UniProtKB/TrEMBL annotation:
Catalytic activity field: alpha-D-glucose 1-phosphate + ATP + H(+) = ADP-alpha-D-glucose + diphosphate
UniProt-recorded name of the protein: Glucose-1-phosphate adenylyltransferase
Source organism of this protein record: Nitrosomonas communis
Keyword Nucleotidyltransferase included in the entry's annotation: yes
Protein family: Belongs to the bacterial/plant glucose-1-phosphate adenylyltransferase family.
Residue ranges occupied by any Nucleotidyl transferase domain in the UniProt entry: 8-275
Gene label: glgC
One GO MF term attached to the UniProt entry: ATP binding
Pfam families assigned to the protein according to its UniProt record, in alphabetical order: Hexapep_GlmU, NTP_transferase
Gene3D superfamilies reported for this sequence: Hexapeptide repeat proteins, Spore Coat Polysaccharide Biosynthesis Protein SpsA, Chain A
Function: Involved in the biosynthesis of ADP-glucose, a building block required for the elongation reactions to produce glycogen. Catalyzes the reaction between ATP and alpha-D-glucose 1-phosphate (G1P) to produce pyrophosphate and ADP-Glc.
Enzyme class, UniProt record, top EC level: transferase
Length: 414
């Protein structure tokens, strides 16, 4: 009954500028991930699998591909049973301004939230990859009589400066919340680890509405949950922390999986991990599936078996519609409708949908954007200095290739 009385609001309006050219034409939650999904499919699937089936998606930055994906892939919920995924685009509902911060994005849709009349509101980010049962957090929130519960992740102390750091007592009551501190507080009894916010907040609905109005009227506020709303609430109301360890689904070796794939390096690493023998993220779990929109495509195809021209893939993940024509794929992840032509070699790479890789191409440690046509004979990933003259190369040596970098025109929405 708690999940039926909850509404989830996924904040999916951000660009994610650290992904550089991957978000030139799409919001970060719409970036493809894992061979057939988009990042936003993970919080959406968590909601559906948890039983929270009233879902709003707040959009703003270059949202067309995100909107199209949700319309095509997430229309299976039945509104007759008050189950839905509803889009909340930025539309200046309260004033002549776009969303000014995460809290303002929710405030500007306050009338819609009141119309749906939930008992609880779950605020989620749309740009992280993880599997979590939100119903466990709801039960804990109810038992504690909390006004707000913050989902928290344990991280090494030296990494905590990039997060909102949560300090708690022995009953997990939050005693302080500091956004990206220079000197983060350690966890009780663990001097080398810190408790950080995952950007997942569970509110009693009436309490949230009151606090959004109060924050909106505060002229000194930037109207952001992490910077303004949460620090204020910690000092005035019943704020508790929820351990992600207790609600994470499919932990590998007891370690909760949560990834911010917000940089090109992190994006490459998380995708390549899926090609390993036992990935940290289990996508094969029938009890907690990741739902998405998927085209009807033919199976992947591997052709030619000569000594110098053999179509094969090793330690790789190959999606539907791909044709490996006399080429070699090693430790790579190929999204749908990728064609790799004869004598090509693709190693340690992530190739997004609808890419055509020409003959004698050799790619190593690259991310290839959708719809690229890789010209015959191109070699990328062996000389970072030379590659950087034409492509984007990260500090860790991952090369990002887009159609624009190849001089190919763009006439589509990604």
């Amino acid at each position: 009954m708690l999940t039926h009385n909850a509404l989830a609001l996924i904040l999916a309006g951000g660009r994610g500028s650290r992904l550089h050219h991957l978000t030139d034409w799409r919001a970060k939650p719409a970036v493809p991930f894992g061979g057939k999904f988009r990042i936003i499919d993970f919080p959406l699937s968590n909601c559906v699998n948890s039983g929270v089936r009233r879902i709003g998606v707040v959009t703003q930055y270059k949202a067309q591909s995100l909107i199209r994906h949700i319309q095509r892939g997430w229309s299976f919920l039945d509104g007759r049973f008050k189950e839905y995924v509803e889009l909340f685009p930025a539309q200046q509902r309260t004033e002549e301004t776009w969303y000014q911060g995460t809290a303002d994005a929710v405030f500007q849709n306050l009338d819609i939230l009141r119309y749906h009349a939930p008992g609880y509101v779950l605020i989620l980010g749309g740009d992280h990859v993880y599997k979590m049962d939100y119903s466990r957090m709801l039960v804990e929130h109810k038992k504690r009589g909390a006004d707000i519960t913050i989902a928290c992740l344990e991280v090494p102390l030296e990494e905590a400066t990039a997060f909102g750091v949560v300090a708690v007592n022995d009953k997990w009551h939050v005693t302080s919340f500091t956004e990206k501190p220079d000197y983060p507080a350690s966890m009780p009894g663990q001097s080398d680890r810190a408790l950080v916010s995952m950007g997942i907040y569970l509110f009693n609905a009436s309490f949230l509405f009151e606090q959004l109005i109060r924050d909106h009227d505060d002229t000194h506020s930037s109207h952001d949950f992490g910077k303004d709303l949460i620090p204020y609430l910690v000092n005035h109301h019943r704020v508790y922390a929820h351990s992600f360890q207790s609600s994470c689904v499919n932990m590998a070796a007891g370690i909760p999986y949560w990834r911010d794939v917000g940089t090109v390096d992190a994006y490459w690493e998380a995708n390549i991990d899926l090609t390993t023998i036992t990935p940290a993220l289990n996508l094969y779990d029938e009890d907690w599936p990741i739902w998405t929109y998927q085209e009807q495509l033919p199976p992947a195809k591997f052709v030619f078996d000569g000594d110098d021209r053999r179509g094969h893939a090793l330690d790789s993940t190959i999606s539907g519609g791909c044709i490996i024509s006399g080429a070699t794929i090693r430790r790579s992840l190929l999204f749908s409708n990728v064609q790799v032509r004869s004598y090509g070699i693709v190693e340690d790479s992530v190739v997004l949908p609808n890419v055509d890789i020409g003959r004698h191409v050799h790619l190593k440690r690259v991310v290839v954007e959708k719809n690229c046509v890789i010209p015959e004979g191109l070699k990328v990933g062996f000389d970072p200095e030379e590659d950087s003259k034409r492509f984007y190369v990260t500090k860790k040596g991952i090369t990002l290739i887009t159609p624009e970098m190849l001089g190919q025109s763009i006439h589509y929405v990604r």
